[in-house]
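Pipeline run #58 for the internal structure catalog. This entry was flagged by the ingest filter as a single-chain record with no existing model, so it goes straight to prediction. Upstream metadata was stripped on purpose; only the residue string is passed forward. Reviewer on rotation: M.T. Logging verbosity set to normal.
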Amino acid sequence: MRCLGKSLLAFVAGAALASREPVVRAATDDERAPDGEMLALEVAARFNETLLANVDAIDMGLTAILAGIVAVDVFTIDKVRELREPEQWIALSLLAGAMLVCIAGYFFGIPWRGFGNRDGLLPSSFIADFVRDPVDATADAAQQLAKAGEINLTVRLWKRILTAIALALLIMGVAVVTLARASGKVV
């Protein structure tokens, strides 16, 4: 009976100890970034990621437009040669302009020296800074990502404008060739 009492006492004491929540030491403000700074970092990171995805999509569109320009050039080069002088130069200028604007749009925003870092921050430098000082590292990372987002907004805007110009020049070049041939203005 005595053994049963000791076992029961050990069981109750063990259950009481097991039901207690573990003691977790809360990190001090010096050891972790405040929630506001983490939220700012997350918002800036998502904003920049979205803009980078937009820019990548525009680059794919520019590549497709460039392929279309090359196809139009290949199939209309003999037709352009048959056009009279003003229509020939207009068509060639429009199609060449479309190609140059498309290429310029594709290469616009490549981070040349002095242009800025469009990706934001490198994880290796952020982690190293975070280990030393989490609060400052988080705040600095959010600021870097916000600056990169501003650069990417400008890059996206100009890529969209150049894409629209390239498409317009391509359509006008094809229209000049088509209308000149339809009106009989061939050599």
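catalog note: The chain is about 80% helix and 0% strand.
catalog note: The chain has a mean pLDDT of 80.
status: ready for reviewer M.T.
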